[in-house]
Design goal:
Largest sheet of chain A: 5 strands, mixed, barrel
Shape of chain A: globular
Strand order of the largest sheet of chain A: 6-9-7-8-10
Strand content of chain A: 25-35%
Helix content of chain A: 25-40%
Mean pLDDT of chain A: 94
Order of helices and strands of chain A: EHEHEHEEHEEEHEHHHHEEHEEEEH
Oligomer: homodimer
Number of strands of chain A: 15
Largest interface: A-B, 35 and 35 residues
């Protein structure tokens, strides 16, 4: 069987985790759910299946240092530095070139760096199911059976197999729905949350770029010989920065057929904002979840994060209270998804 | 005219200002309303009337160091250290002995250390009116015309003078009322808040102790010769700790006649808890008041205190948010008066 390579996508700013996440420390590198950062959790989860030499970290130049610090087990040459952020199509195309250089027959498993997974064992079983079902498919996607009518996620419609089988044929990708539609999806049983995890042969992915994103593919062809030089080359930055900025969902997934979906056997959350912590952490008797030292008196349903010191809440409900880097955030859980509005008001000094 | 001595009473813990106020730094020593602490404000306000040599600071032994640090202009011998806290009767009796030692004919103006006064000029005018009206009275009290039906303060009922005069004869002292009664007091125009500021001749005060609190007076008589030794004497602590623990209101004021009340010409607040800051600080466009660096987005009616760093509120109303010593407090303004319940839950580590 072909060797499996993992691409961990660690881009993004994470303004929705102010004051913890800032340009210097975006979401994947924050210890949001315990002592380890989200990307450390992601690597620890996959490492029993894949040796560090076959784990690539796709990263922006400003976060290379923190990434290498947090992931000392990953070889230096496996940090794939994107000169600029150009969304997931360019990210995965660039990584595909790097995998091709090492192993033309390799498989690529693309993973977001910063999601919550409830059960690492079940997670690896699900990926094994994907590997077993890749043969004969364009690619494999991993779907999460919805547990609430979420309007913040993309969905995947799949067809329940006539006979009991692990893989469901994908019918189509669906953008974020409105609330009534999300409620229908929840009820149907055929709609899955798009986990952002993809599996395919690296060769197939490059062929998909050639067919469906010829402009991006042309850029990749220009980049290919430059990577072989194995030294930093300003030409790489120039070409990369001109690649189309488009997500892999829009650029490839929505256009192709022959995909299979593996329903996930684990709990999942994209940890999109502070309020998400409630779904990933155990709550106290008052229904509060917390990281760090806290005292919640006559308080319920709060999400508390104390990087240091102690956060004390008294007589409040459903608030997010965060203390980090000497800064304090207080907002209702229901506003946590809109935190970019606050960050915009803070201005550059407080980022 | 007899010389005026000022006694600034700086006892008390101030648990209602956690996490700023702790045993080590009680309320008078906190810069709650600006760069200066409340006791610094109090001294600065009275100093144009009274030289530092005639200002005595009544203080507990654990706060002597911070008091001397904050008030370098006050002579060392003017810090009157109470061996233990025994409420305001013992406090003022002890200070009366110290004034007597310096000037048997002196007047005593007793001032709480930690109140808010809106207008220092008007404040001094009001005290001058008190001095002018002391002759022939047992003592002078300063009353605040209520601006809300406050149930947290004691009241003084006084009789409007038949002809226009500065001083109103006091009818009686009244304990904290219930809400309907407080509303009647507010409507009447004859009920004043007890500001806790008193003026009398020092000799009269000692005579009042002799008549109305003979047990306490007996203790003072035992203390008198020991103070003349002008050195620390464990006997002072022993006698002081046995003085009756009772407030000057209960011990003297409620029992005596011949008091006059001067209606205050200034805004006043006892700054009893975090929510009180709202009445002593100017508010922003959203109706929030703040000390320190803050950003309030879509927020209204909040009281924010940032000792360092920045406090950001987003989409919340009527909350107290405090950051100090690495600790964070979040509670509704309406619960600020009950903060002792939170402090009790925190335990000694977090005090």
């Amino acid at each position: 069987m072909a060797a499996l390579y993992v691409v961990v996508m660690a881009g993004g700013r994470g303004e929705r985790f102010w004051p913890l996440s800032m340009n210097k420390l975006p979401k994947p590198f924050i210890p949001l759910l315990g002592a380890s950062s989200l990307i450390q959790n992601t690597i620890a989860r996959i490492q029993p299946m894949v040796p560090p030499e076959r784990i690539l970290i796709s990263i922006g130049p400003t976060h290379l240092e923190i990434a290498r610090e947090q992931l000392p087990q990953i070889p230096a040459e496996n940090f794939i530095v994107e000169p600029v952020g150009r969304d997931t199509s360019a990210c995965l195309g660039f990584c595909a070139l790097h995998i091709e250089q090492r192993d033309a027959e390799g498989l690529m498993l693309a993973l977001p760096a910063d999601h919550y997974i409830s059960d690492a064992e079940a997670y690896r079983c699900t990926i094994q199911m994907g590997l077993k079902n890749l043969d004969g498919a364009t690619g494999v996607v991993f779907g999460i059976l919805p547990v609430r009518p979420e309007t913040g996620y993309g969905y995947i419609l799949a067809e329940k197999p006539a006979v009991r089988a692990d893989a469901w044929p994908v019918i189509r990708f669906i953008e974020k729905p409105d609330a009534p539609t999300a409620a229908q999806y929840l009820a149907s049983g055929n709609y899955f949350w798009n986990s952002g995890m993809f599996l395919w042969s690296n060769r197939t992915l490059l062929a998909l770029f050639q067919t469906h994103m010829p402009e991006l593919y042309q850029g990749l062809c220009e980049l290919r010989p430059l990577l072989k030089e194995n030294k930093s080359n300003p030409e790489v930055g120039r070409i990369f920065s001109q690649l189309p900025r488009i997500s892999i969902d829009f650029g490839i997934m929505e256009k192709i057929s022959g995909l299979r979906l593996i329903p996930a056997q684990f709990g999942w959350d994209d940890i999109g904002n502070w309020a998400s912590l409630e779904r990933a952490l155990s709550s106290d008797a008052g229904g509060n979840v917390a990281q760090g030292s806290y005292v919640a008196v006559e308080s319920s349903g709060c999400v508390i994060y104390a990087q240091s010191g102690t956060v004390a809440t008294f007589g409040v409900s459903d608030l997010v209270v965060v203390q980090a880097y000497g800064k304090v955030l207080v907002c209702p859980k229901g506003k946590a998804a809109d935190l970019k509005r606050l960050v915009a008001a803070l201005g550059p000094v407080n980022e």
